[in-house]
Amino acid sequence: MPYDAGRLVVGCGNVLFKDDGFGPMVIHAIEDYFKENDIEKPEDTQFIDAGTGATHFIFSMPDDNWKKIIVVDVVEWNAEPGTLRLFSPYDMPKGKYENAHTWPVEEPLHDLADRGIEVVIVGCKPGEITAPDVDMGLTEPVEAAIPKAIEMILNEL
């Protein structure tokens, strides 16, 4: 599908570091959801597991044709692990949203929003991020949050 899809849902994170893999796992689960329920994916929407390259991918692609970008990722804030929340780029916890290399990404999200693209973050409070130690698989509360994350994404679409 070309980059002029209209809406983009991007799963961010690294599946090698426990709950940091939440974003990619949600993208795979939503793809399965469409198949298992024999539902056509929205024609104007692209779903991407961007892994750890999400920052580069999102912020270097042509963006003048995107109407909405939904970022799915773990976000550190004062909540119980597995808690989900919709964030705008402007209400992200200051300094708490960084990619795997600890680069803050609030500013690039602000830039996209300032260009008229609707940006929504489906954030999940992680239970455990093991970087730099490899430990695959989500903690129980974060894995249990996947169906609700799918529901939130579908409501945003």
Structure description:
With 157 residues, this protein is of the alpha/beta class. It has one domain (7-156): HybD-like (Rossmann fold), CATH 3.40.50. The chain is built from five helices and five strands, in the order E-H-E-H-E-E-H-E-H-H. The protein has a five-stranded mixed beta sheet with strand order 2-1-3-5-4, sandwiched between helices. The longest helix has 15 residues, at 22-36. The relative contact order is 0.25.
**Total domains:** 1
**Structural shape:** globular
Mean pLDDT over all positions: 84
CATH-assigned homologous superfamily: HybD-like
Strand percent estimate: 15-25%
Structural class: alpha/beta
Described by strand count, sense and barrel closure, the largest sheet is: 5 strands, mixed
Kindly identify the CATH topology: Rossmann fold
With helices defined by DSSP (H or I, 4 residues minimum), what is the helix count? 5
Report strand order across the widest sheet. Answer: 2-1-3-5-4
What is the CATH class name? Alpha Beta
Give the number of DSSP strands. Answer: 5
Poorly predicted residue ranges: 96-103
Family: Belongs to the peptidase A31 family.
Protein name: Coenzyme F420-reducing hydrogenase, FrhD protein
GO molecular function: aspartic-type endopeptidase activity; enzyme activator activity
GO biological process, one term: protein processing
